[in-house]
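Researcher: Here's a chain I'd like modeled. Treat it as a single chain, no partners, no ligands.
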Amino acid sequence: MPHQSHPEVRVLHSLRVRGFVDTHLVADASAMEVPEVEEWLVHLESQGDVRYRDGRMSGWMLTTEGRGRGETLLATELEEAGCREGVHSAYQDFLSVNHGFLELCTDWQLRAPTDDPAGEKVINDHSDPDHDAAVIARLAEVDRVVQPISIELATLLHRFDGYGRRFGDALGRVRAGDHDWFTKPMIESYHTVWFELHENFLATLGIPRASEAQAT
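Model: Modeled as a single isolated chain. Structure tokens:
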């Protein structure tokens, strides 16, 4: 059975990986009911771990203290669940395709001119179906790597459950001709889910993003 995270961990971690979001999105990300999430958010706000920002864009966000509190809880959880080695192994598998995926995103956004294959790349207006088909085929190859990673993670920590489905949904939409679902921000695009999983790995394993960049 995968380890079930404490509600406090799930709420704090959801804000860590999703960023600035409303209550319903916190509930969705943490797999909790909205009333329970509301209670936890009010409690965490009283402790100074989260704050609510109102305005044109409203939502919850972590404070510096909340980020630190979350990191402490995640480290404790990882040791109690006894799955650090398994999560780290999955992370290494993820890193093996991370650079290639980022290059793939660039190739989706830019392409060589049809009349000058060696020329400077231009914005991909998706008027070259052969180029798009080749990039989508490469995305499918990446997906064949990341799906087993997602399955393995879900057997270790329940809060990792759902990544495989979300990747599959995004890939399906791209294959159906909806270009936004490859790299567009603010929706569940393949890149959005990829970035979130990456942040989830870093937060869970306590790896600063800058340290990872230096190591790679």
